[in-house]
C-alpha cells in the first residue's frame, strides 16, 4: 500500500464547476497536510496546508481533513482553465520530510 | 527576489562525471530539503539539512550522493559518477524555524547522456 494515494486522473471538469481532489494516507501519526499545484515542467507551488480536522478555506480553495478516515481533500470552486495542472497531496508525519502522492491531473474545459 | 533559488536550472553531464546542484533558501529560512522527481513519477524526499547538519538523509541513495549545507553559502547536492538513471528534476525546498511549510525552488533538470 502506498503511503499517500491519489487518483492519477485526469479529472475533467467544465469551467465554473467545482473540482474535488482526494487523497488518502496510511500513517496515522501524520500531523500536517499540504496541497501543491504543479504545472508541467515547473516546480510545486503551495496552495493550502491544514493541520486540524475540518475545513479550511482560502479564496476559491477549501481543504478538508478527516484524520479518523485518514483522508484529505481539496475543493476548487469556480474552476478556471488556468487551474489545469497536477495537484500533489503531501503529508508530514512529524519528521518534516514530506511524502507526496503521485498527483492528480486536473483539466478544466473552457 | 526572496524566493528559493537553485542553479543551474539545466545541467547536462556524461556518464561518470560529477554533478553539483546548488540551493539558496528563502530569506530567513534555515531548513533545506532536497527532493527528486523522476520522469512521470512523484516527488521523493532525499535529505533534510540545517546549517552544518544533516538532520535526515533517509531518502538518499547509499552511494554516489551527498549533501551539505555549510555555515556560509548555499546547500549543495553532489552526485558522483552519474548514470543515466540519475536524469531527473531535483527540487530544493526551504522552511523557517517553527513554520513547517516548505516552499520550492524552480528545480535543476539534470540530463545524463
Secondary structure elements and their pairing?
The complex is a heterodimer of chains A (110) and B (113).
Chain A: E1 4-5, E2 11-14, E3 19-25, E4 32-38, E5 45-50, E6 54-58, E7 61-66, E8 71-76, E9 85-92, E10 98-100, E11 104-109
Parallel strand pairs in A: 2-11
Antiparallel strand pairs in A: 1-3, 3-8, 4-5, 4-9, 6-7, 7-8, 9-10, 9-11
Chain B: E1 5-7, E2 10-13, E3 19-24, E4 31-37, E5 43-50, E6 53-56, E7 65-68, E8 75-79, E9 88-95, E10 103-104, E11 108-112
Structure explained in plain terms:
The complex is a heterodimer of chains A (110) and B (113). Chain A has 110 residues and is an all-beta fold. Chain A has strands at 4-5, 11-14, 19-25, 32-38, 45-50, 54-58, 61-66, 71-76, 85-92, 98-100, 104-109. In chain A, the strands form two sheets. In chain A, strands 2, 4, 5, 9, 10 and 11 form a six-stranded mixed sheet that branches. Chain A is globular, with a radius of gyration of 13 Å. Chain B is built from no helices and eleven strands. Chain B has strands at 5-7, 10-13, 19-24, 31-37, 43-50, 53-56, 65-68, 75-79, 88-95, 103-104, 108-112. In chain B, the strands form two sheets. In chain B, strands 2, 4, 5, 6, 9, 10 and 11 form a seven-stranded mixed sheet that branches. Chain B has a four-stranded antiparallel sheet with strand order 1-3-8-7, with no helix packed on it. In chain B, a hairpin with a 2-residue loop joins strand 5 and strand 6 (53-56). Chains A and B meet through strand 4, strand 5, strand 9 and strand 10 of A and strand 4, strand 5, strand 9 and strand 10 of B.
